[in-house]
Design brief:
The chain has an eight-stranded mixed β-sheet with strand order 3-1-2-4-5-6-7-8, sandwiched between helices. It has a four-stranded antiparallel β-sheet with strand order 10-9-13-12, with no helix packed on it. Strands 11-14-15 form a three-stranded antiparallel β-sheet, with no helix packed on it. Helix 1 packs antiparallel against helix 2 and helix 4 packs across helix 5. The chain has seven helices and 15 strands. It has two domains: 228 residues, no CATH class; 76 residues, no CATH class. The protein is elongated and about 95 Å long. Strand 5, helix 5 and strand 6 form a beta-alpha-beta unit. With 344 residues, it is α+β, with helices and mostly antiparallel strands. The structure holds zinc ion.
């Protein structure tokens, strides 16, 4: 039964590869976008689970806004990608949603492998947003898996030394591999098991692609789960510094003074009891930054509503110590002042 099932899958792969080969015989040299599209539509879409999204595009990160070079095929997590990214249809994928990056090369040679290795290194250097609902540490996040898919259609060359060729590239740089798997059409499927490369030579037709697809299906859920619930809001926030405005909701800052060295500072008091009026002094939760003594407000009457200070009446004799502070104008950064002076 299992073998009959595999025969059906092998037929799906054969049909797809026939179509891809036909396109390369019709004149174009190298690998084309049209061929990538056939692989997506006729091979990966029918064979991979529906919650894996498949698209060509670029991968981005939220922290500095870096974007990867074009990636032939991206497998992404449809459950984590917010609809706004689909709607834009920009081919842009936040790294937090990306499960696999497939780097297609048309020939397994040093320069093509080097290029895929460098693109994978770029993707591997991207930071991931932490989940706002869990204290996810960087170490627990399973990163994007980078795979070389070598489509040597013209001639099935003897690629016995593919791994040695790739090892030569990263060893030369004194680095480790940025690629985690190599699927070499008609030859082998190789994967990094965390310690060493494991190699599966082709025995039957399309064994290498079957091994690759089964590896994706076996691993994608763990990669997805490790990302928990990344917040992608940061990708949509305009990259401009925010300015402070007037205080909101009647919240006031009051002056605290050190009971020892008399150092003063403004702070916004909050009460853990929602509605309360306090007659006396308020003590700041932090100590004096200079000498470590308590910081207290002037004697007065402080009225809190829903935990926020709404009025503060300071005893007349103490007015010199603590005067409730009205909302203050925030000085504008110089570049903005210049723009305002110049007018629109
Ligand atoms: Zn002090």
């Amino acid at each position: 039964m299992a073998d009959r099932f595999l025969d059906v899958i092998r037929l799906v792969i054969s049909d797809c590869l026939d179509e891809v080969t036909k396109l390369s015989e019709s004149g174009t040299t190298g690998w084309s976008e049209a061929q990538t599209k056939i692989l997506i539509d006729k091979l990966f879409r029918p064979l991979l689970p529906a919650d894996i999204g498949i698209h060509s595009g670029q991968i981005g990160e939220h922290l500095t806004g870096r974007i990867s070079p074009q990636v032939s095929i991206i497998f992404y997590d449809t459950k984590k990608l917010d609809p706004v990214f689909h709607k834009a249809n920009s081919g842009f994928f936040p790294i937090e949603c990306v499960l696999y990056a497939i780097h297609i090369i048309s020939d397994f040679n040093a320069s093509e492998v080097q290029r895929a290795h460098e693109n994978a290194e770029c993707i591997n250097s991207f930071p991931y947003c932490k989940s706002p609902t869990a204290g996810v540490q960087r170490a627990t996040i399973l990163p994007v898996r980078n795979v070389i898919l070598s489509m040597n259609l013209q001639s099935i060359k003897d690629n016995k030394h593919a791994l040695l060729l790739y090892k030569g590239i990263y060893d030369d740089e004194g680095r480790s591999n940025s690629i985690q798997a190599i699927c070499n059409l008609g030859q082998t499927y190789c994967a990094d098991d965390g310690t060493a490369w494991m190699e599966l030579p082709c025995k039957e037709k399309h064994d290498e692609l079957l091994a690759f697809i089964s590896d994706v299906i076996a691993s994608y859920q763990a990669i997805s789960a490790s990302r928990i619930h990344p917040s992608l809001a940061q990708y949509l926030t305009p990259r401009i510094p925010s300015l402070s405005g007037p205080l909101t909701g009647g919240l006031r800052s009051i002056l605290y003074a050190c009971t020892n060295c008399k150092k003063t500072g403004y702070a916004r008091p909050a009460s853990s009891l929602p509605d309360i009026t306090i007659r006396g002094t308020l003590k700041h939760t932090a100590c004096c930054p200079k000498c470590g003594a308590a910081m207290v407000s002037a004697e007065g009457t402080y009225e809190f509503l829903r935990g926020r200070l709404i009025t503060a009446r300071i005893s007349p004799s103490e007015r010199h110590v603590g005067i409730p502070r009205e909302p203050v104008a925030i000085p504008l950064p110089s570049y903005l002042t210049q723009i305002l002076q110049r007018g629109p």
